[in-house]
Amino acid sequence: MSDFTSNFWDLYVAVTTVVSILACALLLWFSGKTHAMTSHDNTTGHVWDGDLREMNNPLPRWWVGLFVITVVFGLAYLFLYPGAGTFAGKLGWTSYGQYEAEVAKGNKEVAPIYAKFMAMTPEEVAKDPKAMAIGERIYQNNCAQCHGADAKGSKGFPNLTDGDWLYGGDPATIKTTLEQGRIGNMPPMAAAVGSPEDVRNVANYVLSLSGAPHDSARAELGKPKFVVCAACHGPEGKGNPAIGAPNLTDNVWLHGFGENAIMEMINKGKTNQMPAWSGKLTPEQIHVLTAYIWNLSQQTGAVAAAK
């Protein structure tokens, strides 16, 4: 592991790069000073195919000039920009610095547009077609990787288009989630529940809470054991948004459905993380994205009500 903690490879790259450039310059100088033995007709004496003779003419000046320019450019580049090991270059340029500058420039250009949205509530922003188009782009670029292009999520990643929210679905809570992220933790509870049979019984009781198919006899046996789960999910299993404990009485299953899936959750637990976006997105972008995500569930609710 010492190879990865020492500065050997930095020095190796720097020395190899500089020596290679200098070797090219030395080769050019040497070729210009060295003269091959030639005959009286300026040939080297090498003959191919009977009459094809090798001449000893000097390199074209334009070629030598380009070679010199290339060597000078290479040394100048290493002096001004990073390229020789840990030497940062006199200009102090970095790819991250350029990225930050371009992002700042872009944010400045769109600031007047976002200023209008920041003066509006998320509910008002959700009614603005232009804001929703911007929110959709922000979502597709940053959120779709986990929640899907249609925001319907998948196993382990919440559906953002329904009305089921672990921490609450009002705009203020959504904005807090986006800004600070969330870490959901379901600890392994098998030891607290009891034997493997007790775990199976509790799993069936959990299924019974949502009216899902279950073994009613096992559910009755598992009901008293559910008390260890009630600390987070509540005595009726309706969850606790304050700590992100899911509602077990609905038909929404984030990490899988059925007896086996619930038993695995009880036995092994689960930790899920939603990253914080305040370090990547601006407050204005988070404000518009909040309105967009909140509006997704409102549209689904409106369609359901219409039916």
From TrEMBL:
Q: Per its Swiss-Prot or TrEMBL entry, what cofactor is needed?
A: heme c
Annotated TM spans:
12-30, 62-81
What Pfam families has UniProt attached to this entry?
Cytochrome_CBB3, FixP_N
**Presence of the UniProt keyword Phosphoprotein in the record:** no
Q: Which GO terms describe its molecular function?
A: electron transfer activity; heme binding; iron ion binding; oxidoreductase activity
Listed pathway(s): Energy metabolism; oxidative phosphorylation
User: Cross-referenced Gene3D superfamilies, in alphabetical order?
Assistant: 6.10.280.130, Cytochrome c-like domain
Q: Is Electron transport given among the entry's keywords?
A: yes
Question: Subcellular localization, per the record?
Answer: Cell inner membrane
* Residue numbers binding heme c 1: C143, C146, H147, M274
Q: Name one GO biological process term.
A: oxidative phosphorylation
* InterPro entries (alphabetical): CcoP_N (IPR032858), CcoP_N_sf (IPR038414), Cyt_c-like_dom (IPR009056), Cyt_c-like_dom_sf (IPR036909), Cyt_C_IC (IPR008168), Cyt_c_oxidase_cbb3_su3 (IPR004678), Cytochrome_c_Oxidase_Subunit (IPR050597)
Q: Which residues form the Cytochrome c domain?
A: 130-210, 217-297
**How are cofactors bound according to the entry's free-text note?**
Binds 2 heme C groups per subunit.
Q: Which terms are listed as keywords in the entry?
A: Cell inner membrane, Cell membrane, Electron transport, Heme, Hydrogen ion transport, Ion transport, Iron, Membrane, Metal-binding, Oxidoreductase, Repeat, Respiratory chain, Transmembrane, Transmembrane helix, Transport
Q: One cellular component GO annotation, for this chain's record?
A: plasma membrane
Top-rank taxon of the source lineage equals Bacteria
Residues involved in heme c 2 binding:
M186, C229, C232, H233
Please give the chief subcellular localization of this protein: membrane
Quaternary state and interactors: Component of the cbb3-type cytochrome c oxidase.
Q: What does this protein do?
A: C-type cytochrome. Part of the cbb3-type cytochrome c oxidase complex.
What's the family? Belongs to the CcoP / FixP family.
Q: What is this protein called?
A: Cbb3-type cytochrome c oxidase subunit
Q: Which organism is it from?
A: Tibeticola sediminis
